């Protein structure tokens, strides 16, 4: 009988001993962490996020015409598909002046989509749209929009992305604009503003 071939083990690392191991010289050995005893009489500090002053329960007092609407990448694409003019359809939905706002992240996302979405890029560069500069790293638009809406509750978010809608629903006082039945609709908007809901 020949010797059985052993299967070679890949990415096997040599086991290293801990820096606190007794076999290491005392001077080279890492010192054990000493836990600080908590003082029971000390005042405990908690970081509580400040409640926005613009909210009266769920009612957002900062919303009002002219509406500033943060537009997402897919909202522009679906509007083109549904043959809807963005600014005009927003005005038809809210019965007031609307200023669509595009962040640098959303612009970067549309530019990354390439030649196929050049119509969306042309719409996004419309002079009626307000450009909002982004100061953070990366170009992930969803995080950017959620962060912006959390800080400033004067925006309506226009999106058809289910995941982004779910995240924004957790933030109180921020209405969501979406597309249904070839027209724009809005949810979580106070009833004394804008068009009737369908």
From TrEMBL:
It comes from the Eukaryota. One of its GO terms (biological process) is rRNA processing. Keywords: Nucleus, Ribosome biogenesis, rRNA processing. It is found in: Nucleus, Nucleolus. The keyword Transmembrane helix does not apply. Residues 67-166 form the PIN domain. Its main location: nucleus. Pfam families: Fcf1. InterPro entries: Fcf1/UTP23 (IPR006984), Fcf1_PIN (IPR037503), PIN-like_dom_sf (IPR029060), PIN_dom (IPR002716). GO terms for cellular component: small-subunit processome. Part of the small subunit (SSU) processome, first precursor of the small eukaryotic ribosomal subunit. During the assembly of the SSU processome in the nucleolus, many ribosome biogenesis factors, an RNA chaperone and ribosomal proteins associate with the nascent pre-rRNA and work in concert to generate RNA folding, modifications, rearrangements and cleavage as well as targeted degradation of pre-ribosomal RNA by the RNA exosome. Belongs to the UTP23/FCF1 family. FCF1 subfamily. Part of the small subunit (SSU) processome, composed of more than 70 proteins and the RNA chaperone small nucleolar RNA (snoRNA) U3. This is rRNA-processing protein FCF1 homolog. It comes from Dromaius novaehollandiae (Emu). The gene is FCF1.
